[in-house]
Amino acid sequence: MIRCLAVDDEAPALAILADYIDQVPFLKLVGATTNAVEALTWVQQGRADLVFLDIQMPKLNGLQFLKLNGNKCKVILTTAYPEYALEGYENDVVDYLLKPISFERFLKAAQKALALLPGAPPEPTTLAAPVLAATPPPGHMFVKGETKNKYLRISYPDILYIEGLSNYIAIQLPTQRVVTYQTLRELTETLPQPPFLRVHKSFIVSLDKIRMVDGNTIYIGDKLIPVGETYREQLYRLIRQG
């Protein structure tokens, strides 16, 4: 088990990292903080094997953190700025993740870390430390808003359906439509299934919101959503199960 510390000065980004870590069986979240100095102290005490580290932070930025780290643990950089990639790799980072980070890309970076840390010890019970920030409760997700550093919290029960628009998705809620930069494939990896189910190359629906299914058409409110042939069998199997 790889002991992970998530460090980001933006709470929504920190929540996403914590959620992703919780979904990977060989990762264990032992701390999450917006304070890079606090995180460095934790690392120097040997309480983490792997740090997911933002670059742009007050007091101590990610690149300064790397220099002070002294190879005490492995680091995966998480940032919205691609121009720091070369300097990051020069400091021997495991990987460089650009925001918004998909779960698929996150998992690939985690697997790289696993290859480098095959013998990472489990967290000793005698040295267990409190999580520095609470792990987000299930039942919601954060999506990137229309401006830099803006994230919207969306509750899963509010989602009617999600439509793929090339590299964007449109999340349909009862009173609004939220468009964000992400692919439908990436989102499929993170949504709880059920109630969410991909029924077409361009649509994910909430089974709880289906009013009727008629042949190859799903009715959610007044919206008619096509069912792709690839997804038809799974849809009808879940419907028959109630």
From TrEMBL:
SMART domains: LytTR, REC. Residues 3-114 form the Response regulatory domain. Pfam families: LytTR (PF04397), Response_reg (PF00072). One of its GO terms (molecular function) is phosphorelay response regulator activity. InterPro entries: 2C-system_Tx_regulators, CheY-like_superfamily, LytTR_DNA-bd_dom, Sig_transdc_resp-reg_receiver. Residues 143-214 form the HTH LytTR-type domain. Transmembrane segments: none annotated. Gene3D superfamilies: 3.40.50.2300, LytTr DNA-binding domain. Keywords: Phosphoprotein. The modification 4-aspartylphosphate is found at D54. This is Response regulator transcription factor. The lineage of its organism: Bacteria, Pseudomonadati, Bacteroidota, Cytophagia, Cytophagales.
